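Hi V.,

You were right to ask for the full record rather than a summary. Here it is.
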Amino acid sequence: MGTLYAKLAQYDEPEMTKDDTAAASFGGAAAAARSMELLWGTKPPPGRGRKPGMTVDVIVAAAVELADAEGMDGVSMRRVADRLGVGTMSLYRYVPSKAELQDLMLDTVIGDTPSFHEDGHWRAGLERFARTNLDGYRRHPWLLRASLTRGAMGPNQAAALDSVLRLLDETGLSGSERMAVVGLVAGYVRGTAQQVVEATRAEQRSGVSDEQFWTGFAPLLDGRLDPGRFPALTDVWRAAEPVWVDPFDFGLRRVLDGVETLIAERAGS
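Predicted structure:
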């Protein structure tokens, strides 16, 4: 996913104390420690009174299903409990709050990420990394509510980040430069994903596809374009046979071209 070293943005909920919310929102040590225990399986399982068949994985799977269907705003401890047919308080025996639940959700969906270093050449691997991330955002649009600044890192995130960094092992880039390259590609994908998700939501809300919208909108714009005022735009818009490039492919190639230039500079220095 595009948020390999990210933590989902935290949301205020009645069940979280003021201190818990503040700590989680700013990557507080207490919230991070609780998340890391759950992510890495070092937290002791609940004792007596636990519901048979109830596990952290079951809770997280239900939360991901809710988020996929309704977005992150549709996820709460109560809604997850209702989906599982249990009382809300029973969830707290496994997951302390929504803050930790979101960390677990993020790491779980990243578990679908393949190993990128097996592609061999760094450029092919980074391209696959980018396309995998974009697909992940399409399947889980709520990932766009993630923060790219702070967060607990689970085993799936660590494995994915390690794999993409290994692609760059022989490039001559420093460790910080390799991390910056990963961030550059992930950031580019995230920006594109935001546009893709917004377009999908607009189509769902209006019932009008992109093609239908532009078919109806084009004559409205065409009649208002004055070549004297907007010469470049008019030239492109009224081209006899415009050939539109795929914006994602175009941008990704330019990003990777820049990385390739940097690697060549390092090799020649």
